[in-house]
C-alpha cells in the first residue's frame, strides 16, 4: 500500500497481485488475521467516505482464519474460590480495597473493565441504586446504559465513598485521573494464579454474569443487561449452564417419579 501525503486525495493504491499473494499464503497467523480485520474495516470506511475507489479494498481478497470468540465463564466452584481468594488477600493486606472492589463489581454487574475503572461518582444514582453510563462502548446505538446494583453492589460503592478524593470512584494514586486498567489486570492475574485458572481473563468476569443471565433470562433482557448493540453478540450466552439444566432435569424427574409412585 502506498500512502499519499494529502488526506483529501486517495489514501492508498491497491496492492499488486504479488503483494496479495505474498500476504495471503495458505492461512494467516492469529496476529495477522486480527490486523487484517482492522485493516479491512479501515479501508471499507475509506471506500464509504470516498477516499478510495469503491471495490478497491485489497483486504477482501485475503482469506482469514476463522474468528473464534473467547467465552470462558467461571464455574460455580471457581466463583466460590475467587471470592474466597479476594477476601483472604484483602484481609491479609495483600490486596488494596480498591482492587477488591473493582473485581467484585466486575463480577456483580457484568460491566466492561473500562466502565468500572473509569467510573465517576456522577454516574451513580444512590437513590435508584444504579449506575448510568452516558458514554460507553455502544452508546451511539443504545443510548445511556443503566446498570442496577443489588445490596452487595451498593455496599461496595458506599465503602468507596469514604475514600472519595475526586470525580472518579477509583482514582489513581496521584488523584488526578482514574486507576489504570492495567492495574486491575495485574490484580486479577494474581487472583487467577492463586485459584489456578490461568485461562480465565478479566473479561471473563463479564462472561460469568452473562452466562448466568443467559440460563434464566430472555435474550433481549441479557442484551440490555450487558449493553450489547447487536443480538448476535448476546447469542453466545443463550446456552444454559449445566447446573441450571441439572436442576430442571431433577424437577421434571421428580414430577414423573411422583406420578409413578416412586
Question: What does this entry look like structurally?
Answer:
The structure is a single chain. With 262 residues, the chain is mainly alpha-helical. The protein folds into two domains: 1-68; 76-242, hpI Integrase, Chain A (Orthogonal Bundle), CATH 1.10.443.10. 52% of the residues lie in helices and 4% in strands. The chain is built from twelve helices and three strands. It has helices at residues 17-24, 30-49, 76-91, 97-109, 113-117, 139-142, 151-161, 181-195, 204-216, 219-226, 231-234, 242-259, and strands at 124-125, 130-133, 145-148. The chain has a three-stranded antiparallel β-sheet, with no helix packed on it. The longest helix has 20 residues, at 30-49. It is globular. The model is unreliable at 1-15 and 17-28 (pLDDT under 50).
